[in-house]
Fold this protein.
Amino acid sequence: MAFNDPNDASEDGEYTHPPEPLSAEDLKITTETVNFLQYDTGVDVRRLQVQVRSGHLHIQGSVESREQKKIIEEALKGRPGIVSVETYLTVLEFTDF
């Protein structure tokens, strides 16, 4: 049976550990990805969060259209240093009634 230090427990009693610090490579990939999305695809990155851990990219937030979501998903495939991509994007497409 593993011993868990009571000082590691969160308020709900779950045992948590601080996340590993970003490696220099993950930080570089994160910065390059945000710059690429902003300047090469024209996507507004202010509503996006990009995280990279060991080359696994997670992107979440909202985009203005289904087209922008598809542009992001396609643009990130095969980018240097990215092992996998998981997207959690909400489309804010509005229609006139």
In short: The chain has a mean pLDDT of 83. The first strand starts at residue 48 and ends at 53. The longest helix spans residues 24-40. The chain has one domain: 23-91.
